[in-house]
Amino acid sequence: MEMEKEQKSRILIIGVTGNLGFHLANKSIEAGHPTYALVRDSAFSIPHKSQILQTLTNAGAKVLKGSLEDLSSLIEAIQQVDVVICAVSAKQVLNQKLLIKAIKQSGCIKRFIPSEFGLDPDKVQIKDLDYDFYSRKAEIRRLIEADGIPHTYISCNFFTSYLLPSLVQPGLKSPPRDKVSIFGDGNTKAVFVKEIDVAAFTISTVDDPRTLNKVLYLRPPGNVYSMNELVEIWENKIGKKLEKVYVPEKQVLKSIQGKSSYIT
Ligand SMILES: NC(=O)c1ccc[n+]([C@@H]2O[C@H](COP(=O)([O-])OP(=O)(O)OC[C@H]3O[C@@H](n4cnc5c(N)ncnc54)[C@H](OP(=O)(O)O)[C@@H]3O)[C@@H](O)[C@H]2O)c1
């Protein structure tokens, strides 16, 4: 048993007080990886975050104080592990530059998984609507590759908790019961994956040689639905037909121009 544990890579996770990062830490511990978390000082004095840190510590994680802005804390943490997974938010993606420098300098990391966990930034283009994070995620990829850092990119499409609970209705927290807006013709398929499954999948890749220096697409066949299909499932569930308002693509683009986005 102990032997098996020793063979598992030691994983450092950055962002464990966040949504995906917490699941990553739990799945890493569950899978038997010695698990480390790099946490900013400020998190310890925020009650719900300190509770998360206590839960993870009780489960066996080793919490290290540090930050993406502090090179020495990064190097110190990196030197204790084999794999680094970063799960900072989309807005903070460029803050990984110092981390890349630390990984390069340390020279001991077998695998780096940068904060992506969405659509493939090298493939997605939304006309005039980059929100600065697809290009930033792509920029981080190029830095990793230029430094020759072993990596895996996780392209997992949409987290279920962002769009599904409202049936893709902006501003709602639960699915509508009378009227539903359908964007475009409603036939475009999307992939919805639970954060906890994204985390389990990510952890399962770290010691798998087939996943080295690859982009991995998480696309379970049973999780692929168009808006029209989702509406039909909901209608069948509540036993009622909804009024459907089709919003043409041009109008959608116009209405979201200049707004911040949940699409990552
Ligand atoms: N596919 C989708 O639908 C979808 C949806 C949402 C997000 N995502 C992606 O998932 C990834 C994670 O996003 P998330 O929403 O889970 O993030 P989040 O909940 O906002 O959590 C961000 C984490 O990063 C930590 N952090 C921020 N700056 C840091 C720094 N300088 N040093 C150390 N730690 C720092 C935060 O710690 P503190 O507690 O100290 O603030 C927090 O734990 C991102 O790549 C995002 O694009 C995808």
Report on this model:
The protein has 10 helices and 12 strands. The protein is an alpha/beta fold and 264 residues long. The chain has 2 domains: 2-160 and 192-222, 3-Layer(aba) Sandwich (Rossmann fold); 161-189 and 224-256, UDP-galactose 4-epimerase, domain 1, CATH 3.90.25. The strands form 4 sheets. It has a 5-stranded parallel β-sheet with strand order 3-2-1-4-5, with helices on both faces. The chain has a 3-stranded mixed β-sheet with strand order 7-9-11. A two-stranded parallel ribbon has the order 6-10. Helix 5 (97-106) links the parallel strand 4 (83-86) and strand 5 (111-113). The mean pLDDT is 93. NADP nicotinamide-adenine-dinucleotide phosphate is lined by residues 14-21, 40, 42-43, 49, 67-69, 87-90, 92, 95, 115-118, 156, 158-159, 162, 264. Residues 7-256 form the NmrA-like domain. Keywords: NADP, Oxidoreductase. This is Isoflavone reductase protein.
CATH class of the largest domain: Alpha Beta
Molecules bound to protein: NADP nicotinamide-adenine-dinucleotide phosphate
Proportion of strand residues: 15-25%
- Taking all Cα atoms into account, the compactness measure Rg is 20 Å
Layout of helices and strands:
Blueprint: H1 2-7, E1 11-14, H2 19-30, E2 35-39, H3 47-59, E3 62-65, H4 71-78, E4 83-86, H5 97-106, E5 111-113, H6 134-146, E6 152-155, E7 158-159, H7 160-163, E8 179-183, E9 189-193, H8 195-205, E10 214-217, E11 224-226, H9 227-238, E12 243-247, H10 249-256
Parallel strand pairs: 1-2, 1-4, 2-3, 4-5, 6-10, 7-9, 8-12
Antiparallel strand pairs: 9-11
Helix pairs in contact: 2-8, 4-5
